[in-house]
Amino acid sequence: MRTAKEKNNKITASFPASLIKIAALGFLGVILLFFSLAGIASANEPWWHLTSTTAPANLPPEGRGTILVTAANLGDADASGATTPITITDTLPTGLKAIAMGGDAGGENKEHSGGPVTCPTSKELKEGAALACTFTGVLPPYEQIRIFIVVEVEEGAASGAVNQAGVSGGEAYACNEVGTNAGKYTNSVCSAAGTGTFEKQLSGRPLPGASVARPLTISEVEPKFGVENYEMTPEETGGAVDTQAGSHPFQLTTTLDLNQTAEETKPPALAKDLNFILPPGLIGNPTVFPQCPEAKFLQEDDIIDSCPADSAMGVVTVRFVLTGLFIGTQTLVETVPLFNLTPRVGEPARFGFYVQKTPTYLDTSVRTGGDYGVTVSVDNIPENITFISSQVTFWGVPGDPRHDNSRGWSCVGGEYFRPVIEKLPPCASVNQENPPPFLALPTSCTGPLQTSMEADSWKEPGLFQTFSQNPIDPLPALDGCNDLPFKPEVRVSPDVPEASKPSGLKVDVHVPQSVDLDAEGLSASDVKNIVVALPAGVAINPSSGDGLEACSGDPGDLAAGTLGSPGDEIGYEGIGGGAWCELSGVLAEAAGQRGCARSR
Fold it and tell me: CA–CA separation, 39 vs 23, rounded Å?
């Protein structure tokens, strides 16, 4: 750091990407939150997401356990197995033998999924039948098919052996023009209206398959409270991972599976608090969307809340154990809407979902003094619900009409709740033109994104354990930073325009944010450094600040999280020559040039 005695100086400021984006949009009255992916396409389509877990989490040597394979339809349309059956297969590693199989599909009421899951019997398994189950019904968006494989661990089975599972088959629906005697179809798959006659028909094209490979743990040690699987995936339409920096994803899905014992109703401990630490720069803007007041969220209408459909931001599928006087102990799966709630004072944003008359909040906070990323917290999970796993999907552009068939209580789960709640209106579109995006991926291409989560239990409250993204499905490294727009404006003017007079300097930095509100475009690159080059003859006189507290020039002298810490990188250094910083000198770092402002 050069001294202020030099006559030609420059003032520099460096910022974490998340901070500058939050600050810039804050000046526009926008407070940010989380997640991101790509633009709006035209047709609805389903796609598969596959996970595999075990119960217990540690399979006992020469004992028995269960492998659970879950195929979720994470697309925005029904997946039908009517003509091309949906098939889930599993290949066990050496040392494991299947002795029983079973399966189910859909949510709490399996009948609304449109058909049963057919698996080999124990006798057929003994005769060498393949480990394959089929489903010929209709699976709505965000619903799941689950198969259970009871296995015997034989002598010599090794820990680390890989279990492989796959899903194939199923078809999407297409909207086809038919004869004049056919009826007109006007749902989200066939939305054409006015002329012609259209009908929803199967496309005739099987869906792309999916697979997963997971190493198994074989140990005599009883499983402890913890996380078996944690995944966070930004998705494009069709299910591919979005890697374009600054894009607005179709959706972002977070999958969480807790460790289980051999008895699913008796976990190692009940989860209490969950904290999801999002990658820096992965943000969202919930303030441009309708909010559901807490009074509405807590206003019970039979088994649902009273939040309006236009405040829906995504979908949640939860698997849990419920014990009741009349139902006994049951393992249930429910798919419900995720709503944008009115945040508390000082909170960036708040979301919530309602399961079994129990409200669950997703609170947010910014990691101030650190990387300025967002943390999403679920606190004090009710003990009356034994939480097992969850699949939480935030839509990148909530107003996208492709989400209409899953929007709110009337539509979610293939309109499952409409026959149950008579007051619910028909599933309908929000009819929003040019809907704004909610999510935006980071604008930095510096390596793979990093995320982790923390969890504690009611058995040991406050004793948090940290778990990273599943290494088999890591978050991607972003690319395409050279495609991001970056057109900031920097204006500097003296308070006193007279020669040889003391004067302050007014520095205005403006980064246009309009591009961030274009769902089909890319977010502007975040500002990394701001440099104001003073003209020859302009000097800085620190002595004029006599009596004011000074900021240390050595970042090591300051505590972490305070102004001037290594994470803030705020200071100034002198240069020779220089000129006023004008718009023409504002250059993007991606272009390989140095100017008054540089992007990440």
Answer: 25
Check residue 434 and give its pLDDT. Answer: 86
Residue 400 · residue 519 · CB < 8 Å = yes
Say what the pLDDT of residue 90 is: 97
Helix (H, G, I), strand (E, B) or coil at 152: strand
The confidence score (pLDDT) of residue 142 equals: 95
Q: How many residues does the chain have?
A: 600
Compute φ and ψ for 433, nearest 5 degrees: -85, 135
Low-confidence ranges of the chain (pLDDT < 50): 1-8, 19-20, 22-42, 109-112, 181-188, 192-195, 564-600
CA separation for the pair 375, 356 (Å, rounded): 26
Nearest to 447 by CA among 471, 481, 483, 482: 481
For residue 157, the cross-strand partners are none
Query: Tokens for 386?
Result: 């034994």
**Cα–Cα distance, 403 to 398 (Å, whole number):** 7
Domain 48-170+207-468 = CATH 2.60.40.740: yes
Instruction: Give the span between the Cα atoms of 39 and 522, in whole angstroms.
Output: 9
Rounded Cα distance between 378 and 383, Å, is: 13
Q: Report yes or no: 296 and 92 within 8 Å, Cβ to Cβ.
A: no
Q: Read off the pLDDT of residues 63-120 as tens digits, 9 standing for 90 and up.
A: 999 999 999 999 998 999 999 999 999 999 999 999 999 999 986 544 445 568 999 9
How far is residue 131's CA from residue 120's CA, in Å, rounded to a whole number? 7
| 210, 50 contact by CB (below 8 A) | yes
Alpha-carbon distance values, 357 to 28, 340, 388 (Å): 38, 18, 18
- Amino acid identity at 197: T
Q: Specify the pTM.
A: 0.82
Let me know if 202 is exposed, middle or buried by CB neighbors in 10 A (0-12, 13-18, 19+): middle
Domain ranges of the chain: 9-28+482-599, 48-170+207-468
Q: Are 403 and 411 in contact (CB under 8 A)?
A: no
Cα–Cα distance between 113 and 135 in angstroms, integer? 10
The neighbour count for residue 187, using CB atoms within 10 Å, is 17
Neighbours of 366 (CB within 10 A): 21
Integer Cα distance of 440 and 445 in angstroms: 14
Type of residue numbered 489: E
Q: How far apart are CA 357 and CA 351, in angstroms?
A: 16
User: Burial of 144 by CB count in 10 Å (0-12 exposed, 13-18 middle, 19+ buried)?
Assistant: buried
| 387-422 burial code (b ≥16 CB/10 A, e <16) | bbbbbbbbbbbbbbbbbbbbbbbbbbbbbbbbeeee
